[in-house]
């Protein structure tokens, strides 16, 4: 029986750039792990009881079976959605940090007003913010 989501793992090309961008969006990196033996770095960003786990791999790291599977899953997550208190204020904060709003946003979503930002302006990750 599953209790809760522990984390969402996303492979990124540049961990430092991604961490800086997401800190600019108001998230806080609480831990960075360097796993030299695996040629990887991992940064954790808590959101409530869930963690976003950004992973980056050294380009010269060998490809054993587990890394072949893990590293081939780029883009497997469609988007991350963050609930915000004030959609308009959050949009301005995201834009101040380089994110570009997708045309047609904000709009009415399934559970409130939502806005999406182009992945190419958020380090390759489609981000949705939602005001319930």
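^ structure tokens above, recovered residues below v
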């Amino acid at each position: 029986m599953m209790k809760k989501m522990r984390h969402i793992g996303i492979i990124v090309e540049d961990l430092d750039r991604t961490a800086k961008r997401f800190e600019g969006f108001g998230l806080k990196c609480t831990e960075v792990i360097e796993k030299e033996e695996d040629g990887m770095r991992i940064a954790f960003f808590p959101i409530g009881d869930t963690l976003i786990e950004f992973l980056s791999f050294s380009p010269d790291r060998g490809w054993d079976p587990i890394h072949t599977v893990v590293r081939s899953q780029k883009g497997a997550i469609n988007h991350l959605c963050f609930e915000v208190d004030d959609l308009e204020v959050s949009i301005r904060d995201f834009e101040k940090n380089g994110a570009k709003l997708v045309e047609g946003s904000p709009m009415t979503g399934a559970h409130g007003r939502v806005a999406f930002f182009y992945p190419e302006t958020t380090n390759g990750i489609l981000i949705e913010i939602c005001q319930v």
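The helical segments are 15-24, 65-71, 87-96.
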